[in-house]
Each structure stands twice: as C-alpha cells, then as structure tokens.
Amino acid sequence: MKRLPLVVLAALAGCASGPSDDEARARAEQVFRESFTHGNRQMAARVDQQDEVQALCTRYRNEAPQDVADRIGSAAAAGIRYPASGKFLGDWRQGERIAQDGYGLRFTDADTKRPNGGGCYNCHRIAPAEISYGTIGPSLYRFGALRGTGEPVQRYVYGKIYDSQAFLACSHMPRFGKNGVLTEEQITHLVALLLDPESPVNK
Amino acid sequence: MNGIMKSPGLPALLLAAALPCICLAQQETQKEIERYRQLLAEGNPADLYEARGEELWKTKRGPKNASLQQCDLGLGPGVVRGAFARLPRWFPDTDRVEDLESRIVTCMVSLQGFKREEAIRNPFSAPGRPSDLEALASYVAGESKGMKLAAPLSHPKEIDAFRIGEQLFYRRAGPYDFACVSCHGDNGKRIRLQELPKLTDPNDARKIFTTWPAYRVSQGAVRTMQHRLYDCYWQMRHPQMDYASEASIALEVFMAKYASGGEIQAPGLKR
Predict the structure, then answer these.
(1) Helix or strand (DSSP H, E) at B142
(2) Using CB atoms within 10 A of its CB, is residue A115 exposed (0-12), middle (13-18) or buried (19+)?
(3) Which structural domain range is residue B241 located in?
(4) Is the same domain home to B34 and B50?
(5) Which of residues 94-133 of B touch A (CB under 8 A)?
(6) Which pLDDT value is given to residue A45?
(7) Is B211 a member of any domain?
(8) What pLDDT, on a 0 to 100 scale, did the predictor assign at position B40?
(9) Confidence of residue B84 (pLDDT cuts 50, 70, 90)
(10) Is there a smaller number of Cβ atoms within 10 Å at the N or the C end of chain B?
(11) pLDDT tens digits, residue range A77-133?
C-alpha cells in the first residue's frame, strides 16, 4: 500500500502534461525497447520498465514539484534497511577500494563473483591523495571533520548511500543499497571512509 | 631565526603552499592533456582512417561489385563534400531519418548488395580487426571539415525523431538510475578528470558534437558517434545499444539541434 501513492502520482503527472507529450513519451518508450535488443533479456527487462522514482524523475526532468518530491522522499526513507548489527562504521581502507572501483553491472562485466564497486570518485572528491575525481557530486573531503562523526551522522551517510532519494528527490546519485549495487557491509565501509577519524578524508 | 619563529605567517604560508598543490597538480594534468592533444593534432592518426575510408569508398566491392561513389548522402548521388554537415536527416528512399553511419550502411546495402547484417557486423574496431565503417565515417565526416553544422529539422519524421531523442535524453533507468542528463545536464562538470559537455547548451554542444568521429588516444582507434552512444549506455549499466538503432539516431537529432552552427572539426582527437 505504501507504494500506491507514487503510482497514482505517476498517472496524475500524465494528465498534467499535454497529450502530445504523452504521445512522444509513448513513442520514445517503444523506440527505446526496440533499440537494445542485444544481450540477455534480464538486462533488457531491467531498463525497459522504469520504477516509480525513475518514471517520475524522468517526467519532471529531475525537478519534481514539492508534493511529488515529498512522496518520493518518504517512500525511499521507509525502504532503507539499516544494518542489523546496528554498526554503521566499517573499515575505511576497504571503503577506499570500493570508492575507487567502478566494476559491476555493465554488459561486459561477466565476473559475477567479483564484488561491485561504488565508483564514488567518478563524481566526488574524497581522500586528498586522489586527484582524479569527478565533480558531478559535492566534495566529500573532510566530511567527518566538518559534520561530526557521531551516530546521527553515521546513520545519515549510510542512508544517503543506501537510497539518495530519501534525502533529495530526483538526486543524480544512484541508490546503491536499494538497487542492490552495493551490499550493506560495503556501505558501512564507505561510511567509515567518510567518517572514521583515522580515514585520510578527515586527517 | 627569531623572525621566523615569531612569524605567524609561516604556517599559513606553508598551508597556502600545500593547498594549491592539489589544484595545481590537476591543472598540470589538464595542461599535459592539452599539450598532448596539440602534439597529436599536428598529425591526427585519424588521417589514416580518412585515407583508408576514401579508398574503400571508391573501391568496387560487395555482391554487386560497385563502389559507394553514387551514394546519396543527402545532397544528391555522388556528393560527399558538405554532406556530413547536413546529417542526420530524413531520406525519401528509406523514409527514415538516418545519421552518417546508418546512411553509409544503407548505401552498402543498396549499391553494393551487402546484407544489412553483413554491413554492420564489425562497427567498432578491435586490435587487429579494423572496421570499414570507422574508416568510411572518418572519410565522409572529414569532407565537411570547416563547414557549419546545419542538420535539417523540418520533415515530420525529423521532428518526431527530435522529440523521441528529447524524451530519451531525460529517461532514467537501470540499476544506477542514469539518464543522459545525469552527466550532461550541467556546465563545468567532470567524471574523474574528463570534462563533460552540457549537451543542451549550444556553446558546449557545438564544440563536442562536431568533433565525432574522433581518434581516441585511450582506445587507439577512431570511434564514431554511434560508439560514443554505445559507450555511454554501457557506462549507464544499460544493455548493449543496437548499432544505428532508432534511439541512437533520435538522440543524435536531439543533440544536432543544440550543436547547430558549430564548425565541423571531424575527425577529432580525444582522450
């Protein structure tokens, strides 16, 4: 039942825009499905059908009106699975490796035993030694030193990596936990990279 | 000695010296890339692709033993010069909007008698396995060098393609929730050190769209716009995009509108 409001919203959003928009959207969906016919069907199914967040953020071009944003946010927040151990802080050294690694889920990534990476440096500045970092996301350098390292911050960082939509509707950032890109344990290592006082991020 | 000890300025100075270090290192890296680019620009390896492409264009091949010289790239049969600056466009014979590569394939099928599957079997080269399509695309694009891009956007099918491309540009999907706009929606962003164009900003779009096909130093090969899109979707954790698919051409029509007026600098030279 929790997801129902989003579905309803998606339908309503369709009414709000003109009929020609709906037509272009329907055509685009058809063309999309016919343009990725290679490879395994499982992968195609993964992109053919958008989930509610993807559909709404596409429709509003990532600028959802407040009521839609609120609903995306609360549905996402309700879906975050926090670690059963109650321990948020993993090993920052492993976190650094995960942040560097972009492996996983591409159609050439055949080794399914190899863990996925987070590819964090693609978009964020993190530890100062790595100067090859992207700027799509904000700098995370000195994150713990600036924001504190206590439980509430740990919880926030874990949740943000697990499902960024809970904190900023239509954020560009992938939902690493929600979409099964990273494991809960991997996320705790990334939390440590940002928050452990011993991490180079905070030195 | 005393002066140094007392000076509160020294730690600050050291700090000030250390901080720009990172930025400086980055600027240096960027500068090095620029230098490398200039160095190579004096002799772009894509020249070799253009030459091989021209030869292929003029060679009789295929079941019909014909060259591509009578290919109509939009300006009439046999006109190569300036044709790329007017692509993608709608073609009456196929009743489709076609880009550079799909049009070359069309001509390989209609003039030379290749089966379509044969024509598109090897769109992207690998070491020891050169691609005719990369060479042909380099040649045709190079024949519009210095001209201004002005792809038509008036036929209903061109307008339809633009609108589909626009929808797809914003379409988020896959385990990473990525759309084209995730990386190409803002000015001045980077993935790692790679600068990203905002493709709906004519200033960026004109500079970028007009430089494909391009020799990519990191891949040691000329890559085409079709490859650029295929590679983007690979990175976006989507399945493999079909070569010359309708979605790819729609995205090109969308991009070409914003890039309109940009000077063709293809084949370009890139990281």
Answers:
(1) helix B132-142
(2) middle
(3) 46-270
(4) no
(5) none
(6) 84
(7) yes
(8) 64
(9) very high
(10) N
(11) 999 999 999 999 999 999 999 999 999 999 999 998 999 999 999 999 999 999 999
Residue B3 has pLDDT above 50, yes or no: no
Residue A1 has a pLDDT of 36
Mean per-residue pLDDT, B161-182: 98
B71 is a catalytic site residue: no
Q: Tell me, yes or no, if B19 comes closer than 8 A to chain A by beta carbon.
A: no
B68 contacts B55 by C-beta, under 8 angstroms: no
Where residue B119 sits, what CATH number does that domain have? 1.10.760.10
Does the residue B1 lie in any domain? Answer: no
Q: Does B36 touch chain A (CB under 8 A)?
A: no
Query: How many domains does chain B divide into?
Result: 2
Q: Are strands B268-270 and B221-223 parallel, antiparallel or unpaired?
A: unpaired
Chain B residues with beta carbon closer than 8 angstroms to that of A54: 172-173, 177
Q: Which CATH number fits domain A92-195: 3.40.50.410, 3.40.50.300, 3.40.50.280, 1.10.760.10?
A: 1.10.760.10
Q: Is A40–B239 a contact, with Cβ atoms under 8 angstroms apart?
A: yes
Judge: B172–A135 Cβ closer than 8 Å, yes or no.
no
* B183 vs A: CB within 8 A: yes
Which of A38, A132, A136 is closest, CB to CB, to B239?
A38
Chain A residues touching residue B166 (CB < 8 angstroms): 24
Tally of residues, chain A = 203
Q: In chain B, what percentage of residues exceed pLDDT 70? A: 86
A45: its two tokens: 């199914």
Q: Note whether B24 and B98 are same-domain residues.
A: no
Q: What's the pLDDT at B15?
A: 44
B247 phi, psi to nearest 5 deg: -65, -40
Instruction: Count how many Cα atoms sit within 13 Å of the Cα of residue A32 in the half-sphere of its side chain.
Output: 29
pTM of the model as a whole: 0.89
Q: Are residues B26 and B147 in the same domain?
A: no
CA distance B65 to B59: 9
